[in-house]
Amino acid sequence: MVKNLKDLMKHFSDESKCREMLIQQRWNGSPVCPYCNHTKHYVIEGGKRFKCANQVCYKKYSVTVGTVFEASNIPLTTWFPAMYLIASHKKGISSIQLSKDLGVTQKTAWFMLHRIRESLKDNHSEMLGGIVQADETFIGGDNRNRHKSKKHFDETGKAFDIKAPVMGAIETGGKVKTQAVNAVTKKNAITFISDNVQAGVTLVTDSNHSYFKIGKKFEHVKINHGIGEYKIGLFHTNSMENYWSVLKRGIYGIYHQVSPKHLQRYCDEFAYRFNSRDMKDGARFEMTLTRLQGRLKYAHLIAKPIIEDNTPFIQTDDEI
Ligand SMILES: [Zn+2]
Questions:
Q1: How far is the CA of 59 from the centre of ligand 1 (A)?
Q2: Has domain 131-258 been given CATH number 3.30.420?
Q3: How far, in Å, is the centroid of ligand 1 from the Cα of 119?
Q4: Which of 70, 95, 103, 293 is deepest in the core (most CB within 10 A)?
């Protein structure tokens, strides 16, 4: 396992070493055709690519097909340290910083960061159990303190605040899950909690009415902050509130401002680090590489790329 960035650069100093690692992490060392799942293959181009041995397929593929690295002309020797850096910087890393660290343009760094965030998405992990705290927060907002170039304007040229709501749930002592939503509503609370929380848990929320209907499906503890109540017995919403402050410190401190369009990816990035907080940086990096296979399985090749290559460069998202 790599111990630090220097170690990583030494281990993965050329493309073939990076590919070997990917083949190991993605396929357990034995290539599988991403088009038909056939396991017999021919090694071609000196090991750079493979040719499927299934006679009705016969397609050529490389280990990066269907992963975040696909169709990018950025070498793996640049992708690997980028993945290591984003996974190990506790508050994230801005595209400006990453561009300086790796010697790529800010636009390239921005694009890489979004692609990496996409692979950090928690698509299929276990639902939360035990005692689960649910709460919401709002990211962004106050235009008053913003430089003119960063304010949001409506069609008439009037500045307005964008506050993007995020719903979250955390298992006491365990994992967090977060979802950017259009509004905090009963309906969104039902969807979010049903998708992420096991039956039979004790649900702890504040007295926001949005959680009352879904709360009927659980033992529901409501903490009424309005009357100065912060704890009922052992129950509280402090873990979720602490998580929000980590998320906000990261987003405001490193990324400064995030458009609602990209907010979910930032949420995924922070949740990924939080949920692997007990791992060493090297182990987290290796885990990040294994998730590429999950992406292939679920997003699959027919799905349209989540970040289109022609995504305009939106500097306000994380500029310094
Ligand atoms: Zn095939």
A1: 6
A2: yes
A3: 24
A4: 95
Distance 62 CA to ligand 1 centre (A): 12
Q: Own/partner pairs for 77-80, CB < 8 Å, 24+ apart?
A: 77/12, 77/13, 77/14, 77/15, 77/18, 78/102, 78/104, 78/112, 79/18, 79/112, 80/8, 80/12, 80/18, 80/21
The backbone region for 289, taken as left when phi is positive above 0, alpha when psi lies in -120 to 50, beta otherwise, is alpha
Phi, psi of 177 (to 5 degrees): -135, 140
3-state class (DSSP) for residue 294? helix
- Separation of 29 CA from ligand 1 center, angstroms? 17
Q: For residue range 192-238, list pLDDT tens digits in order.
A: 999 999 999 999 999 999 999 999 999 999 999 889 899 999 999 99
Where helices occur in the chain by DSSP H, the ranges are 5-11, 15-27, 76-88, 95-102, 106-120, 186-196, 212-215, 238-250, 260-275, 281-299
Report the amino acid identity of residue 16: S
Identify whether the C-beta of residue 140 lies closer than 8 Å to the C-beta of residue 163: yes
Return the domain boundaries, the chain.
131-258
AA identity, residue 175: K
Phi, psi (deg, nearest 5) at residue 90: -55, -35
SS3 42: strand
CA-to-CA distance for 105 and 76, rounded, in angstroms?
16
Give the Cα separation of 275 and 97 in Å (integer): 24
Query: pTM for the whole thing?
Result: 0.81
Q: Is 59 exposed, middle or buried (0-12, 13-18, 19+ CB in 10 A)?
A: middle
pLDDT value of residue 263: 87
